Amino acid sequence: MIGKGAKSLQKFSRYMALPAPVSQNSYDKINDEILPATTVVSNSCMKKAAEEELLTGSSDIMISGDGTWKTQGHSSLLAVCTVIGAESGQVIDIDMSSYCKSC
Question: How confident is the model over 19-69, as pLDDT tens digits?
């Protein structure tokens, strides 16, 4: 899909003069079906990226982190954080949280 939900897919289809996409219910079922495969692939890619970071021979690796919150001001309880390997520039871990430890 386009990564923004069924409503965005419907809007995109209208703009592109395409037939109407699936209903919200069908969209949710499709997402439920592909979730296990996307989870396996993303975990595999992150494991490979972490292994590439360790190829430098050091047990210490340099990383950077990035995060985003559902609302501005970091006040949302829903957040996504990523850990990025400094050498490869690849994501080596992600975490989605619905709990803010600093709140």
Answer: 888 888 998 998 899 999 999 999 999 999 988 888 877 778 888 998 887
Q: Is the Cα dihedral 41, 84, 28, 18 positive or negative?
A: negative
Q: Edge to edge, what strands does the sheet with 91-97 contain?
A: 63-69, 79-85, 91-97
pTM of the model: 0.67
Q: Tell me the angle at which helices 6-15 and 24-54 cross, rounded to the nearest 10 degrees.
A: 100
The four Cα atoms 83, 86, 91, 96 give a dihedral, to 10 degrees, of 10
90 burial via Cβ count (<10 Å: 0-12, 13-18, 19+): middle
